[in-house]
Automatic annotation (TrEMBL):
Family: Belongs to the cytochrome P450 family.
Keyword DNA-binding in record: no
Keyword Lipid biosynthesis in annotation: no
Keywords: Iron, Metal-binding
Pfam families: p450
One of the record's GO molecular function terms: iron ion binding
SUPFAM superfamilies, per database record: Cytochrome P450
Annotated InterPro entries: Cyt_P450, Cyt_P450_sf
Organism of this sequence: Noccaea caerulescens
Official protein name in the record: Putative cytochrome P450 71A28
Superkingdom field: Eukaryota
Length: 101
């Protein structure tokens, strides 16, 4: 949580000089303005940030697993289960090209 406290403090320190605002800045504004009667303290903000980070990690991991499985399936389909793949077969792998981009 020490890392998260540093992140929050950096946003507090930089808040007056910023032209763009991110998620942490929004949480700090809610804390300052008590938007809709919501009262957030520093600990609440750190927990929300941690929750967003962990949620993002989980969904990113799931998406990468899904993409890798689809790439494997496409590769097996186009390469006809051969050890080596021709350039022509690779040219037909549209999903592979999309992932590499």
């Amino acid at each position: 949580m020490e890392f998260l406290e540093r992140v929050v403090q950096e946003h507090v320190d930089e808040s007056e000089n910023k032209e763009t605002f991110d998620f942490v800045d929004t949480l700090l504004r809610i804390q300052r303005e008590k938007t809709n009667g919501l009262e957030l303290n520093r600990s609440d903000i750190r927990v929300i940030i941690l929750d967003m980070f962990l949620g993002g990690t989980s969904t990113t991991s799931t998406t990468i697993d899904w993409a890798m499985k689809k790439l494997q399936d496409d590769f097996r389909t186009y390469s006809e289960h051969k050890l080596f793949t021709s350039e022509e077969e690779v040219d037909n792998m549209k999903y592979l090209k999309a992932v590499i981009k």
